[in-house]
Amino acid sequence: QVQLVESGGGLVQPGGSLRLSCAGSGSIFRLGAMGWYRQAPGNKRELVAAITSGGTTNYGDSVEGRFTISRDYAKNTIYLQMNSLKPEDTAVFYCNAVVFQRTYWGQGTQVTVSS
To answer: Most buried residue, 10, 42, 77, 110, by CB count within 10 Å?
Structure first.
């Protein structure tokens, strides 16, 4: 079955760091773009970061310079390194992939930034 599974969420203090992982179930994910979205209560789901099959990246304005997306093609996995975290980063983070005009979503992982 084709699926995405996120991990690495948790509680972190402001200014701290966290690394999220998203593992795809098959090699087809090497052929498409993958990325991270997030959604906080009362807010719309927004793009955090994305990476193409060729490795080109783009970021949402609110995380530019603080977050880094990367991918490991051999493991069918993408990562999100989050530094200088702020309370307003608190949200459920979702992994996303688009391959051959089909969209896949992970189940989400909670990130909470609080003292």
So the answer is: 77
- Using CB atoms within 10 Å of the CB of residue 20, give its burial: 0 to 12 exposed, 13 to 18 middle, 19+ buried: buried
Is the model's pLDDT at 1 over the cut of 80? no
- CB atoms < 10 A from the CB of 71, how many? 22
Nearest to 8 by CA among 113, 109, 115, 112: 109
- Ordered strands of the 18-24 beta sheet: 4-7, 18-24, 77-82, 67-72
User: Is the model's pLDDT at 17 over the cut of 90?
Assistant: yes
- How far apart CA 35 and CA 114 sit, in angstroms, is 25
- For residue 79, give both structure tokens: 């990562």
Type of residue at 19: R
Over the stretch 59-114, which tens digit does the pLDDT of each residue have? 999 999 999 999 999 999 999 999 999 999 999 999 999 999 999 999 999 999 99
